[in-house]
Amino acid sequence: MTNEVWHLDGELAGRYADGRVTSVLATSVEQHLLRCETCRRLMQPSVRTDRLDHIWDEIVERVEAPGTSLLERLLHWCGVDEATARLVAVTPSLRGAWLTGTTVVLLLAFLAAQTAPQAMSAFLLLAPVLPAAGVALSFGPASDPAHEIVASTPHSAVHLLAVRTAVVVSSSFVPAALASPFLPGSAWAAMAWLAPALAMTVGTLALSTRLAPHVAASGLTILWASVVVQGFVRHHDPFFAATPSVQLASVAALVVSAAVLLVQRRDLAEVLRRVS
Amino acid sequence: MTPNTTIRAEGIVKTYGRQRALDGFELDATTGVTGLLGPNGAGKTTLLRILATVLAADEGSLRILDRDPLEPDDRRHIRRRLGYLPQDAGFHRGFTAFEAVDYVAVLKEHTEARARHDEVRRVLDLVGLSDVAGKKVRALSGGMRQRLGLAQALLGRPELLILDEPTVGLDPEQRMRFRDLVSEAGHGRTVILSTHQTEDVAAVCSQVVVVHHGRALFTGGVAELVELAAGRVWVDSDRDPRALAGWRLGAHRYHHIGDPPAGAELVEPGVEDAYLLLVGPHVAPSDANEERDAA
What we know:
By secondary structure, chain A is an all-alpha fold. Chain A has 2 domains: 10-64; 70-275, no CATH class. Chain A is 72% helix and 0% strand. Chain A is elongated, with a radius of gyration of 30 Å. Chain B has 9 helices and 14 strands. Chain B has a 6-stranded mixed sheet with strand order 5-6-7-3-8-9, sandwiched between helices. In chain B, helix 3 (97-107) packs across helix 4 (113-126) and helix 4 (113-126) packs across helix 5. Residues 283-295 of chain B have low confidence and may be disordered. The A-B interface holds A 60-61, 63-66, 81-83, 86-87, 90, 144-155, 160, 269, 273, 276 and B 49, 52-56, 72, 76, 79-80, 82, 84-86, 88-93, 95-96, 98-100, 102-104, 106-109, 111, 113-114, 116-117, 121, 133-134, 149, 152.
């Protein structure tokens, strides 16, 4: 065993400063530099300040840059770019409260349907309403406290609405779709919410070219509720919404709404501007 | 439109139902800080929303940065060169200060994450919020939130900065600091600032526009505005009932504006005196002189 003290030479100091040493050797050098003034002086001319600045920038970036939420990571995984995922993440309809509300309401409808088939009306009433409400909440002042600032940016309002709508609709459809196989009646009857849900969602967007989105969604909700309630009261049929006449009417409404939206798409940006 | 003119507005009209918010408004603005001074409801916010391309005018001609805001392509071009701080600038309260500005940066087409984050850090540093970048918006004071609003407006070094009542709700120290920031921002770019604080105008504006009932009553420099009140401001030991308006300065000392009586002790007028002479004594521009009342 010797007491000979190990020191850095010029070659090693240069390699360390350039980051060209193994992690084990780098650790040894760092430990030594902490207690050796001579080697610190030797190192000084070799230190590249630009590299240190770069490392510092990386540290700041890691500490300050916003963390990505689960939703953002999920969207990114699905191929959505980072910037778009960020915009989607602030849609209120996607926040926990909305998702929880959606799931709880559907769960209640599902449980009711298990115990009393008559309660299927409640499920068929609620499932199509939720995505339309989500879409109405996705734009305008209610959706974003920064809406006034957003309206003055060059980002396309139509693109923002389209992206948010796609995600809101998916988040509302998923729990409803998951509940469907467990519902009483035929598989077809259990999926009867789908066509009205699509019709109401696209209808809300189409009507929003003329009305405020929440007014459009409210109007369609009242219309749909009157259909379901009337079916239950007049015909005592909890599956009235699944009858061919209602389903065909929903598909027709969907087609008309999509056509209106297609024709009005150029004006939609102006409408969104007006809404804000 | 001269080469330096950033905004040229002629005969701008905007109505809400039966209310005429803007009634033939005229404005020319170039590099520097232009202050819109007027009482609440004068039409300042409506005008700024139109200039920020958030709202369209019903009538009149408007050129911003030599573009027509009614044309979609031109509008997008204007928005790329524009920073806007609305009166009630809201942010998601669950966001951190960094996230709030980052969100707006995405909308301002800063799509590359690393460059965007660098830009966010730059503007937060400009307004002195670097130390609270990681704090939630809900935990920031009113003054900090106003500075956060200014930070997002400064993203991308805009050529035109529109600030609606940026000093409202700030305490005197915050207000002073904010004025410094706005003055700095006014170097080399056009800043349009609305306020009902005459002190703001005196402190930072190179041009002032007095707005009343949706029209520009006066447009010119601060000194020219003050000059309007020359020889029409006096002090007395008693309140003078003939004055247009008067308020107590201290014990047995009253400040008056209007047509002075013979032998009155005339004093140097201020921005507020000129403003009151223009719009009338019942329209208070500032909440700083609570003791003022119509004589």
